[in-house]
């Protein structure tokens, strides 16, 4: 198994970075799903196509990380037909994630697509890099979060402005869970049982998804191979 990369929680001094670690905790942990946001297109199981980034180059590195906080599923995605993943950095717990090394421009374009905006304008990252959090609007993924840095490069993600206990939880669809679970598995830091237990315990999935049901999706992907 791959070792987890350690996140230095210190906020970076450079507020105009050329590169960032875009840290995904939902379906974008899967490189095929991420490719739709970067290169354009529609991944299997999704109901909507993405225009892609100005720069279509895939990340030069993708590494497994763990964030402090909680993952939960809420609202209803028109793309997947179920709950979407959100990150509450202020909650207790840990979040399995994957950090992709991208340009700051690409991060802006991915964020725009997640916000249902047209990509093409670069975000001002000063606020999030100085304060660790910057609420750009009331929408689903319009809050930027900086978890620190890896190798002097900021670790950035986006989420909703509300917390895990502020909204109604919504069960995620099988297609969404499949991309999340298989993406985490391909990151190489966690085994199938750990991933299945983690996803099934997240608010929104808990009570609807069991670890065995998540494992069935992973077994489907791996052709029933061993859980290592």
Layout of SSEs?
Layout: E1 19-24, H1 31-39, E2 62-68, E3 70-74, E4 84-88, E5 94-103, H2 104-114, H3 126-131, E6 133-135, E7 143-150, E8 153-159, H4 174-187, H5 192-201, H6 211-222
Parallel strand pairs: 1-8
Antiparallel strand pairs: 1-5, 2-5, 3-4, 6-7, 7-8
What can you see in these coordinates?
It is built from six helices and eight strands. By secondary structure, the chain is of the alpha+beta class. The protein has a six-stranded mixed sheet with strand order 2-5-1-8-7-6. The protein has a two-stranded antiparallel ribbon with strand order 3-4. β6 and β7 form a beta hairpin. The longest helix has 14 residues. The protein starts with 18 loop residues before the first strand and ends in a 6-residue tail after the last helix. The C terminus is likely disordered.
Essential attributes:
228 residues; alpha+beta; two-stranded antiparallel sheet
Gap between N and C termini: 9 Å
Spatial extent as radius of gyration: 16 Å
Q: What is the strand tally?
A: 8
Helix-strand topology string: EHEEEEHHEEEHHH
Main pleated sheet = 6 strands, mixed
- Apparent shape: globular
Mean pLDDT: 93
How much beta, percentage-wise? 15-25%
Sheet with most strands: strand arrangement:
2-5-1-8-7-6
| Percent helix range | 25-40%
């Amino acid at each position: 198994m791959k070792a987890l990369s350690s996140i230095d929680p210190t906020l970076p001094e450079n507020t105009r970075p050329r590169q960032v670690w875009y840290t995904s905790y939902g379906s974008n942990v899967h490189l095929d799903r991420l490719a739709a946001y970067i290169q354009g297109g529609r991944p299997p199981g999704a109901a909507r196509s993405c225009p892609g980034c100005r720069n279509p180059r895939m990340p030069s590195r993708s590494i497994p990380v763990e964030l402090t906080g909680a993952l939960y599923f809420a609202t209803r995605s028109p793309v997947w037909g179920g709950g979407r993943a959100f990150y509450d950095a202020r909650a207790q717990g840990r979040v399995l994630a994957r950090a992709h090394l991208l340009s700051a421009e690409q991060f802006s374009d991915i964020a725009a697509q997640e916000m249902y905006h047209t990509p093409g304008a670069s975000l001002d990252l000063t606020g999030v890099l100085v304060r660790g959090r910057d609420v750009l609007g009331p929408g689903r993924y319009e809050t930027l979060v900086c978890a620190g840095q890896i190798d002097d490069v900021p670790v950035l993600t986006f989420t909703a402005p509300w917390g895990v206990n502020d909204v109604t939880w919504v069960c995620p669809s099988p297609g969404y869970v499949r991309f999340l679970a298989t993406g985490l598995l391909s990151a190489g830091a966690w085994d199938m049982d750990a991933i299945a237990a983690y996803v099934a315990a997240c608010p929104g999935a808990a009570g609807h998804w069991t670890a065995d049901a998540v494992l069935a999706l992973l077994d489907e992907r791996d052709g029933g191979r061993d859980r290592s």
